[in-house]
Structures are given as structure tokens and as C-alpha cells.
Design a protein that fits this description.
This protein is α+β, with helices and mostly antiparallel strands. The protein has helices at residues 13-17, 20-29, 46-53, 82-88, 105-113, 119-137, 148-164, 172-179, 191-208, 214-219, 231-262, 264-272, 277-287, 319-322, 358-375, 383-386, and strands at residues 32-34, 41-43, 59-60, 145-147, 294-298, 302-304, 307-309, 314-317, 376-381, 409-414.
């Protein structure tokens, strides 16, 4: 495949739209391959990805968004750059967010996050999901068609995470108006700044005036050493969960519906046996991982699968590639609803940075698919918007960090 020799993964749009042949080509070079444009070590192998995810002592998350594109103010020299990382990590973008933290700071802050995602709270939130799903579908079912992302997935996931975090219902309309789809590059405002401001106000208010609600529980939570976090720290955690929890689940829901619309035989199978839905969701996450890549920085000189990685080098773990590694997943490009190890996918990451909202996303997928199948007798892809079967046209997010459809137009027959 000589056409891949000059590909720039970080800039070439064709690779963003359909990366899977390129992933196979990279893996054939080596499961840990140093790309020529920026010197990033691209991890496309499943076991190799697990090794990186499982070793935060060697691979720092400080550059999880920055990659090689934002530099420290001092050079990275020597075989151990841990002191430089610890002293200068604040210079990198996203440095105040949980996904970029390393232990022990990560451990303490994730503990605060988990105050929001208790089994009891998730159960209460799922009860809300069932009601919300019907309410959202009521807005378009009579039309027999919809643009699924803007008319269902985005507002649904936004309000689900708002309910989970205890946003007052009186503010739901404000959040829906201000946020819409967080990854929409056409937005003129800065959605994360809106979230920071809102959650800082909520947390500060609950500390002054405690109530019997979820937000108060988060506001009064302490670190393991019983110290009280800054209002800003708590607000950042809540805002990050809000943004990440909405956006990645939007992509999961839209990919799941795309699969059902493209494969009528599979849709009939799932309609007839709803117990298949959980594994269907896992296989969707395996074949189309919303998280395209996560950077890490080597703290020390190390080796990964026999490849020498210098201290300070950028490593990019590609879950979508690892999830199609034929050494771990048989016939990896085939969507197999009965795949026995589908849940072993890395669509939610792995290790200490495994997505905390994974149980929430799975529940949203299960509720959404059940209610859509309950309330329709057939779901198909719009030929007018996406072309005929076998020659579909889809647009994808133009970013190397996330993978997702920008629109998904579907047509359906309402159940009698």
C-alpha cells in the first residue's frame, strides 16, 4: 500500500474519514511505529496499547491533548524527564483537566468524580433516561424522519448528564440553548468556559447554602486526606465529565443507529431479541470507537514491543486501531453481534484513565435502542441525504482525537 507512505495522520482528511486501512498498514510496519512527520510513536496493537494504558509510571498523561504540538518552555533532555514534566506540565493545554493528571493527583481528583457516579445515582439517572427518551422521540416520530444527532442524540445526552450531575431542572433549557453539540466547530461561544462558570457558581452556592441534592454532595466532598478542594477544582471535574460524557455518547448512539440502518438483517435480529442489545453496543464501540487517540509522554527511556522510545517522546494510543488488531479480535473488520470478547474493546480506554462515564454511556445506549425499536417498525438510512446502499456518503469530525459522524439522517416507520 504505497499510497500510505506519505500520509500525515494529523492533517490528511481522508484518513480522518476512513482510517482503518491506514491502521492496518501502520500495524503491518510495526504495532509501535514511529511516524515520520512529528516523530510520534503510533500504537496500533492491542497488547501494546494495554501496556501503555497500564503503566502511568512510565507514560505520563500530561500531553493527552497536546501531543508533540505544544512544547515545554525548557528542553526535554536526558533519560528521565519526570522532574521536567512535574515542574512544567501546567504549560500544556488541558493541564487543569482530570484526563491529563497523573497519580497521586489523578487518584485524589478521580475520587471526587466518583461521588457523582455511584450505583444508586446511576440507577436513579436511568429512570430519568426512560422518560426523557420518549419525550425526545415524541418531537420527531410523527415526521417519519429526523437528523438523529441534533434531534435526539445531542439533546438526550446533554439532559442525561445534566440530571446525573444535579443541574437544576430550571436550568436545563439554558444548557440546551448554550451547548448544543459541543464539538460543533461553528459555535461562536466557548462551551467549556460556560460550563466552568456554571459549575463554579453551583459549587460555591452549595457550600454557602447546603441542600439535600447531588450538587451539595459534590460540593462538600473532600480528598482522601480530608482536605477540601478548591471550588475551581470541583467545577473543572464536573464540567469535564459533562462535556466528555455528552460528546462521546452522542457518537456511540449515532454509530449504533447507523449500523442498524445499514444492516436490515441485523436490525431484525435485535428487534426480535433485545437481550442482544448490550453486546451490540460493545461491538459498536469496538468497530467505531468515539475516542480516536490519546497521547502519552514517556517519562523515561523505555522499550515497547522492542521499539526504543526516548524520554520525552510522544506516544499516541489508537483505540480504534487496537480494537481491530487481528491478533486479538478474529475477523476484526466484521461486525459480529455474538463476538465473545467484544467487551474487551478499548473504546473507553483502560487502566486508571478508563472512562468514568462508561456505565452511563452503556445505559444510554441500551435505553435509546430499546425505545427506538419499541416505537418504530423499521429504521433506514436516508438515501436523499447519504446516498443509496453501497454508495453512502457520511461526513466525520475533522479531528485526530475523536471519531464521529457530523450528521445522521434516518427514516423510519412508526410502530402501530
Amino acid at each position: 500500500m504505497a499510497e500510505f507512505e506519505g500520509v500525515n495522520f494529523f492533517k490528511d482528511r481522508v484518513i480522518h474519514d476512513d482510517p482503518y486501512d491506514y491502521y492496518d498498514w501502520m500495524r503491518a510496519q510495526h504495532p509501535v511505529w514511529k511516524e515520520p512527520h512529528y516523530g510520534v510513536h503510533m500504537v496500533t496493537g492491542y497488547e501494546e496499547a494495554l501496556a501503555v494504558y497500564s503503566d502511568p509510571a512510565t507514560y505520563s498523561s500530561c500531553n493527552t491533548v497536546a501531543g508533540p504540538f505544544t512544547k515545554f518552555s525548557v528542553p526535554l533532555e536526558g533519560d528521565d524527564v519526570s522532574e521536567i514534566i512535574d515542574a512544567h506540565r501546567h504549560e500544556l493545554p488541558f493541564s487543569d483537566q482530570l484526563p491529563s493528571f497523573d497519580p497521586p493527583m489523578h487518584t485524589a481528583h478521580r475520587g471526587l468524580l466518583m461521588r457523582l457516579i455511584t450505583p444508586k445515582r446511576l440507577s436513579e439517572n436511568e429512570e430519568f433516561m426512560w422518560r426523557l427518551a420518549d419525550r425526545q422521540m415524541d418531537e420527531f416520530l410523527d415526521k417519519g424522519q429526523c437528523e438523529f444527532i441534533s434531534e435526539y442524540a445531542s439533546p438526550f445526552t446533554l439532559l442525561v448528564i445534566a440530571d446525573l450531575e444535579g443541574v437544576p431542572e430550571s436550568d436545563f433549557g439554558l444548557f440546551r440553548t448554550r451547548l448544543g453539540t459541543l464539538m460543533d466547530g461553528a459555535m461562536s461561544h466557548k462551551p467549556l468556559e460556560f460550563l466552568y462558570d456554571q459549575f463554579m457558581a453551583y459549587i460555591a452556592d452549595r457550600r454557602r447554602n447546603p441542600r439535600d441534592d447531588i450538587m451539595t454532595g459534590l460540593a462538600t466532598a473532600t480528598f482522601p486526606d480530608r482536605s477540601t478542594p478548591d471550588v475551581k477544582d470541583v467545577a473543572l471535574i464536573a464540567a469535564n465529565l459533562f462535556a466528555a460524557g455528552q460528546e462521546t455518547t452522542v457518537r456511540l448512539l449515532s454509530f449504533a443507529l447507523k449500523v442498524l440502518g445499514e444492516h436490515p438483517d441485523l436490525q431484525r435480529l435485535v428487534r426480535a431479541d433485545r437481550d442482544r442489545i448490550p453486546n451490540f453496543i460493545e461491538e459498536t464501540l469496538r468497530t467505531e470507537s468515539p475516542l480516536r487517540g490519546q497521547f502519552r509522554m514517556a517519562r523515561v527511556r523505555t522499550q515497547l514491543a522492542g521499539v526504543e522510545i526516548p524520554a520525552g517522546a510522544s506516544v499516541l494510543v489508537l483505540p480504534g486501531a487496537a480494537n481491530r488488531d487481528p491478533r486479538f479480535f478474529e475477523n476484526p473488520h466484521e461486525f459480529d453481534i455474538d463476538r465473545h470478547n467484544a467487551r474487551k474493546h478499548l473504546g473507553f480506554g483502560f487502566g486508571i484513565h478508563t472512562c468514568a462515564g462508561a456505565p452511563l454511556a452503556r445505559a444510554e445506549g441500551r435505553v435509546t435502542l430499546n425505545r427506538l425499536l419499541d416505537r418504530t417498525s423499521d429504521i433506514g438510512i436516508s438515501k436523499a441525504a447519504h446516498g443509496p446502499a453501497g454508495a453512502r456518503r457520511y461526513d466525520y469530525l475533522p479531528t485526530y482525537l475523536f471519531r464521529g459522524l457530523t450528521t445522521l439522517h434516518v427514516e423510519f416507520t412508526r410502530a402501530v
